[in-house]
Amino acid sequence: MRKEEAAGGGSDGNFTAAMGIPALDGLGAAGEGIHARNEHIIIDEIPDRTALLCKLICSL
């Protein structure tokens, strides 16, 4: 299990995390170069990421 740690960034999860409310973030497409000219997604990862999100939603 990973240790909790503070991280910067512009996610709305920062607001809830500051109040001690757990937040899930980073459930979008896998890729590299976030917000940079070389930003891209890995197309072959889309089915796996979609399945992960679907299983997460169905478990709620």
From TrEMBL:
Entries under InterPro entries matching the protein: Peptidase_M20
A Pfam cross-reference name: Peptidase_M20
Name of the featured protein: M20/M25/M40 family metallo-hydrolase
Native source species: Oceanobacillus kapialis
